[in-house]
Amino acid sequence: MPDLYYSDYIELDKILNSQHPRSFESPEEGNDEMLFIIIHQVYELWFKQILFELDLVRHVFIRDRINDNSDDLSKVVQKLKRIGKILELINQQVSVLETMTALDFLEFRNVLLPASGFQSTQFRLIEAKLGLKMEQRYKKKYYKSTRRGSLSEADLQEVDRAENESTLKELIVRWLERMPYLTERFWKEYQHSSPVDRRNSPVDEQTTNSEDGEKHKFWADYREAYQTSLSGNEADRLAEFDNVFFETGRGTVPPAAMRAALFITLYRNLPIFHLPFELLNTLSEIDELLSNWRYRHFMMVRRMIGLRVGTGGTSGAGYLEGTLSQHYAFREITEVATFLIERSKRPVLPNALKEKVSFNV
Ligand code: HEM
Questions:
Q1: What are the C-alpha distances in Å from 190 to residues 121, 183, 352?
Q2: CA distance linking residue 32 with residue 104, whole number of Å
Q3: Does residue 105's CB lie within 6 angstroms of at least one atom of ligand 1?
Q4: Bridge partner residues of 67 (DSSP)
Q5: Number of the ligand 1 atom closest to the C-alpha atom of 301
């Protein structure tokens, strides 16, 4: 057997022979179409790696139990952080393409019609596997497979399948709902922080039974502390608090999962919550980095084509601006910050809970 050769191992021939600009034949008459093709290919390779990491993370959560203090959770956090680093990198790559001017782009724009990044199935799969659903998408009409410039029927079905498998968001919500931080035996010695007036409160009963999470003593105290923290023009927030944590939840995240996310965020200094907090924080970071990309891409598009329609037939910059405000997978997790209070005002946790160093969910 001959020794393995570098270019064979990474199949370099295939990659380096996959750039076929349509607007010129010889390098002497070349334009920026070469850069345009290469940069899209580089993006698609990184998208592939992101999907690979995402599938790995989803598989860890798909198992019935994951051990929060074992390698499982640290592996998940590490992979998600890697996704974040890739997103940072591809955000920076926009500047390389921005060395091309609007006139340079016009030299070859017509040859790619009606192809468009809109048809990047991998990008759609990333969004879908993170948890973005079709009904949440801005201008759903653009996604009809019969529309010129949209995804093909086969690609759309693949995205649809990804949406219907367990998305990362759904898996995270299930994990949060299972979080056993209210387990009764840790709360026996819990003292109310202050006498609480519970008129009009959905948390009027007092229990330390974890089955009754929303009626747990802790939440009665926290609600009280939150109410006290609100300034005069924020009085409506208490009703929102009740709604989010005890009634309907927020967006697609039910109240029990919202409570766990808030609890982890509040007490993230406890060793048991270090990794869970890192995890939630990284999800918000991924949302933010993706929206940074959307923003940079949108600004670049405005510079390249102004207000003209895209090659994929959308309204162009207008459509991209719409996705920027609407396409988030973990908005609810990020918005937990709305319901935080100062560290010193937090209810004091029972020692039994503080001392608990590991648990399985
Ligand atoms: C000259 C550079 C570029 C221009 C003028 C441009 C233009 C556009 C426009 C107008 C759209 C909206 C769909 C349409 O009507 O075509 C779009 C979507 C998109 N483009 Fe680009 N693009 C450029 C570079 C890139 C690059 C380098 C990537 C990297 C993969 C990319 C990925 C995407 C993706 C993923 C979408 C879908 C975004 C969404 O629906 O949220 N584009 N692009």
A1: 52, 12, 9
A2: 7
A3: yes
A4: 360
A5: 5
Distance 297 CA to ligand 1 centre (A): 7
Cα-to-centroid distance, 253 and ligand 1 (Å): 30
CA of 294 to the centre of ligand 1 (A): 9
Q: Which residue lies with its CA nearest to atom 25 of ligand 1?
A: 117
Q: Residue 246 is encoded by which pair of tokens?
A: 């005890």
pLDDT tens-digit readout, 117-144: 999 999 999 999 999 999 999 999 999 9
- How far, in Å, is the centroid of ligand 1 from the Cα of 201? 49
What digits encode the pLDDT tens for the residues 312-355? 999 999 999 999 999 999 999 999 999 999 999 999 988 887 77
CA distance 174 to 254: 10
3-state SS class at 360: strand
Is residue 121 lining ligand 1, measured as CB closer than 6 Å? no
DSSP letters, 82-99, are HHHHHHHHHHHTHHHHTT
List phi, psi (to 5°) of 353.
-75, -40
Question: What's the whole-model pTM score?
Answer: 0.93
